[in-house]
Amino acid sequence: MSVQALFFAAYRDLLGTKGLAVDLPAGATVADLVAELRGRGAPFDALPAEPAVAVNRTYAHSSEALHAGDEVAFIPPVAGG
Amino acid sequence: MIHAAVVHDPIAHEDVLSRVGAEQDGAVLLFLGVVRDHADGRPVSGMRYESYEEMATPVLREIAEEAAGRIGSDRVAVVHRVGELDIGEVSVAIAVSSPHRAEAYDASRYVIEEIKKRLPVWKKEHYVDGTQEWVAGTVPPVREPASATRENAR
Hints:
The complex is a heterodimer of chains A (81) and B (154).
Chain A: E1 2-7, H1 9-15, E2 19-23, H2 30-38, E3 52-55, E4 58-60, E5 71-75
Parallel strand pairs in A: 1-5
Antiparallel strand pairs in A: 1-2, 3-4, 3-5
Chain B: E1 3-7, H1 13-17, E2 27-34, E3 38-39, E4 42-51, H2 53-71, E5 76-81, E6 83-86, E7 90-98, H3 101-118, E8 121-127, E9 132-134, H4 146-153
Parallel strand pairs in B: 1-5
Antiparallel strand pairs in B: 2-7, 3-4, 4-6, 4-8, 5-7, 8-9
């Protein structure tokens, strides 16, 4: 299955991309997606091992299962206000 | 009426204020977050705010609704701006009205504190020396998965 990973602010600057499609085995979790990306080596390995993530615009735990077409946003520490 | 919006244009705080107020309200409170000219002793020339807009708008509304729920009022308005801001420009405006002042202060404070904890917005400071940096932020809290919550509830 394919999910859409999105990167904002410092993560986008780090990776040089706003987002990319990632193929994962069925049943993969948020943690699996993070591991797949970090396993690609530099610069992806500079992502935190447990980043804050939102699945389809809601904050999600690393154990949450993903589904085909999910939008998975990597959320750097927030600094609004 | 609860109002929450993420905007790109300058915030007219009178417009935010005009969204609250009612005949039973004796307290009307406006909070403005403003870009200041320094950070940790470094002179700042401006700030760039960025958001995950499709998520920031609903999260901001959720925060406003929670604040309103705390005080039993529906007169809460919050507007957050993104884009390039100069020193002195308003980045966030929060207006609350309630029958008495304590509730208005409580709700206003709740909105700004929750924005800082979980609104998907980031800011990059531009320093007078020409450099720029993302401001160190707060890791948003993530609830336990729903399945685990159901498990615990048994």
